[in-house]
Amino acid sequence: MTTNLGPDGGGPSRLLGERRALGSGHTRKLLLTSAGIRNEVLRSALADLVGKPFGRATVAFVPTAALAAPGHHGWLIENMNRLYGLGWREFSVVELNGLAGETVLRRLRRADVIYVEGGNHYHLARSIIANGLAAEMAAIIESKVYVGVSAGSMIFSRNLSEQTGRAFAEHDDLRILGDQPACSPFGLFDWYVKPHLNSPVFRNRTPAWFERASAKLDFPVYALDDESAVRVRGDEVDVVSGGQWLLLNAPAPGAGPAPRADHAPAPAGALPGIRAMAWSAVVDHPRVYRVLSSARRRIQPRR
């Protein structure tokens, strides 16, 4: 069974477990990326959510998760520079630990966009909870555009837990918690985001690895490559992608609509001879949607 997920196919999805804010008067706007705003598809999606030129908008950059990640932090500087290069009216850095809680919340309220960087998602979730920020941050996020990067995209699921961490072999990340439990500060969704599909940095994260890990779990998992994001607008959930992604443990066909995927053609010159990108979701079995890209190559006449 094949379902077309091209730009005109597949209506808005309403995946299991989403809860809207009641009486907030705002539409939730989340862009949950694997590695930040890395391509024009994601940049356009962010611009649409912001609703005004970046030069008239303010962003709060939250590096908390990155500070708990070991090793070389060149990736953090690259991500920050890429975001800064979009040309914001104001670019603020807000660390969740060390500042008074009201100072953190005041800076987040001031921003149009809250951009939460990657690193250790357990440290990020614990920092929000331990500093007493969870309830107020949740309320603030309802009226802002939230962009998550890796760890920053993973903290919204009610299924952020030690069991989930063990399924994805996150033993090193879990150690930072000591004896404290792993839990989400927000618990908005049943589904879970796991980043870096087919990443050259995380070489083990192949489609087969994701499928084996997700088979140990009983909730939907979005496996995103670094060119993709899950987008939430109110009660609509879809995928914005310039690359590849998987939806595992998906509802069985007939139980509900498949997630919509929005794509753009590959940039000119990205690969020689590519004319267009063709997208499809292939149902391998009732609980797995495999979403891959394929290229139709133009036959060049011989000279």
Keywords:
single chain, 303 residues, alpha/beta, eight-stranded mixed sheet, disordered N terminus, disordered C terminus
What do you see in this structure?
The protein has 303 residues and is an alpha/beta fold. It has one domain (27-249): Class I glutamine amidotransferase (GATase) domain (Rossmann fold), CATH 3.40.50.880. It is built from 10 helices and 14 strands. The strands form 2 sheets. It has an 8-stranded mixed β-sheet with strand order 4-3-5-6-2-9-10-12, sandwiched between helices. A 6-stranded mixed β-sheet has the order 1-13-14-11-8-7, with helices on one face. It is globular, with a radius of gyration of 19 Å. Residues 1-23 and 264-303 have low confidence and may be disordered.
* Total count of strands: 14
* Low-confidence region ranges: 1-23, 264-303
Terminal Cα span: 41 Å
Any guess at the CATH architecture? 3-Layer(aba) Sandwich
Note the topology:
Layout: E1 2-4, E2 29-33, H1 40-50, E3 58-62, H2 64-67, H3 74-84, E4 90-93, H4 101-110, E5 113-116, H5 121-130, H6 134-141, E6 145-149, H7 151-154, H8 162-167, H9 171-174, E7 192-194, H10 207-214, E8 221-224, E9 228-233, E10 236-241, E11 245-248, E12 260-263, E13 274-285, E14 288-297
Parallel strand pairs: 2-6, 3-4, 3-5, 5-6, 7-8, 10-12
Antiparallel strand pairs: 1-13, 2-9, 8-11, 9-10, 11-14, 13-14
